[in-house]
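Box S1 | Example of a co-folding query
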Amino acid sequence: MTDLGDRPVSDARAPESLSERAAEARTHPVLTIDDFSVEYKGDRVVKAVRNVSLTLGRGEILGLAGESGCGKSTLAYGINRLLKPPAVITGGSAHFHSREGYVIDLNELGGEELRAFRWDKIAMVFQGAMNSLNPVITIQRQMEDIFSTHRPDMSRKDRRMRCGDLLERVGVDRARLRSFPHELSGGMRQRVMIAMAMALDPQVMIMDEPTTALDVVVQREILREITRLRAALGFAVIFITHDLPLLLEISDRIAVMREGEIVELGDAVELYTNPRHEYTRKLLASFPSLTGERGDFIRSGSHAQNGELV
Ligand SMILES: Nc1ncnc2c1ncn2[C@@H]1O[C@H](COP(=O)(O)OP(=O)(O)OP(=O)(O)O)[C@@H](O)[C@H]1O
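Box S1 (continued) | Returned holo structure for adenosine-5'-triphosphate
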């Protein structure tokens, strides 16, 4: 594995339009998952993920939808090799395709390599992330730790500068570096977590219900931030939530999961206007705001083109 350092991201320009992004997923994948299966082998065996195959394109936002318990988190944690017993990956593979052209088989990575790989290439933000900040350590020290561990050659001055820059990138004043987590609102703490996930310039972000615990206004602000950052930095996102209306707004493509399987995968607008699978239709119908006479679904025209929230 090579170290990307602070490599410029100009080569990772996010494609402009939805169709361009869908094509990009096929021609320039950043992650390919083939026939991936996970079981929880407890007293009762649960087949949580069944033969899932999907491709994440460079710079695309792929939404993963489905009701509670369908296996979304298990798939995300499985890809990143974060599952703990009794979970067992029973089949399939996941490959990371780097910007530089090399391919990493995630099943082949050992402990140390895996730790290095995680923050560096695939970063993860999950629902309770903001509560995983250490309460007795300043934001600055927690952010700097990432660089001390993964970029040991970086000077102290550069580390500090970079931490401040990262905070500003997610809309938090750099003066907050001196704060302790309890001095920040939930929304700010979640922004800090997103800044930390971006620290090493990962090519993939896996976001598992990252805004669910936040109120709607803060949630929308953060989503706007994520789509803006994706456009600027070119990372790809797997965005997991049971909130289908939200996914329809931010995703390029959406995969619908049911009982461990992906039953439909397609362009977000296409999936909304012309759902193919019966279950997708049911899922859409379960959100009255999407199916009412006027509906809340506002994604259209130029808005859909640039992937920004209105
Ligand atoms: N530690 C565990 N032991 C046994 N079964 C588990 C365990 N964790 C999850 N499961 C089961 O695996 C299945 C998939 O769970 P998972 O959490 O991946 O679904 P999800 O779609 O992410 O749900 P949610 O939206 O509620 O987080 C469920 O049937 C769940 O009960």
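The two ends are 40 Å apart (CA to CA). Residues 40, 42, 46, 48, 66, 68-74, 86, 242 surround adenosine-5'-triphosphate (CB under 6 Å).
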